[in-house]
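Researcher: Please generate the 3D structure of the following complex. Treat every line as part of one assembly.
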Amino acid sequence: MRELDVARITEAVKDLSIRTNIYLPDDVKKALRESLEREESPLGREILQVILDNHDIAEKEKMPICQDTGAAIVFLEVGQEVHLIGGAPEDAVNEGVRQGYSEAYLRKSMVADPVLKRKNTGDNTPAIIYTRIVPGDKVKIVFAPKGGGAENMSEVRMMTAADGIEGIKDFVVDRVSRSGGNPCPPIVVGVGLGGSFERCAMLAKEALMRTIGEPNPDPDFDVVEKELLRRINNLGIGPQGLGGRTTALAVHIKTVPCHIASMPVAVNIQCHVSRHGETII
Amino acid sequence: MKTVELRTPLDEKQISNLESGDKVYLSGEIYTARDAAHKRLVALIEEGKDLPFDLQGAVIYYVGPAPSKPGQVMNSAGPTTSYRMDSFTPLLLERGLKGTIGKGPRSMKVRDSMVKNGGIYFAAVGGAAAGIASTVKAAEVIAYDDLGPEAIRRLVVERMPLFVVNDTSGNDLFEAGVAEYRREE
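Model: Done. Output below.
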């Protein structure tokens, strides 16, 4: 057994929360730059340029790219040969969020009671944490600040086998169409297929972590992704929804097996500030 | 489409000159308010009480900024999605509000109210929050400090870049833009 103090997790989460909110992954920046070259709308091009300039300002001034520094989504993969000591892993994650959001002057966006009192917790905790036990002696932390505007445009639908792949495609395109300018396009579309009601939603979120430009490991779903991207960009929603040819930068699909009666489908929408980062301890 | 230099408070004449698609550089005092603050503002109006700022000719920016660092006027401060304020906006427009700034489209009720009461909806570029912050020259919390990022702030902005989405003639830049670039499959 490898002994690992959870203080290491706190340190890593703190670092990730700051880094991901200031520096956008290279693949997202590249996709935005390429979309600027393709965009036909003059207003769309102007908006894309403002978005690209903003990355430079954020990095130079060490300011968050977006004021909505998100709910802290954390995927924790703990190797089965790791013995965590020094406290509870979830407390360690939350402490990292608390320290990172405070130290870097990131916005605290969590309310304690979702409906009645809606009082801000003041430190952006609790993080939304998903833990998996995996082979090995490492701990992998994926950190993704998720803004509210795009998350609000997401949806789960329990479809059936009779709906087929065409039904799924129509649902995904319709979901993006109904979202219009709300989720801060150009967006990344995560699609989860299969599993159960909650599993497909998780898959959709995990799909957003994939590097833009990396093909789907399943060649059949790779074709579906490309068709969906074309159909979504033909909606004309464009940058910020003000019209144009760049509505989405990518569509990512993730699948798992499901029950014979079901065909769960989830669409998780991500804004152009598609932030995520990982650390392996 | 034209480029307009605009200064708050806004009056009927300034507003009637604006058309959907215009680019605007906005200067002067504006107020921040989003979900929780709107709920409180509308409750005050319904109770017949005074608001923490004068609505006449006012512009509200839908934003919850990141907290400022020591010595920094404004940290990142891009627009939030406007539809969440739609149910509150017509009442504020009836009481003198002239402009709102956010991202994403407005409901038909808000659009009708802007035509009826003389109001403009501006879009700022969502996610371009560090750049927008540089146009803010002064900021102070004037109400609801307990709401944290959702407190009402008075900002002094200089040449804040915006696009006119809805004008007083009922035009909508979202509808027009999407119609132009949509391709039927």
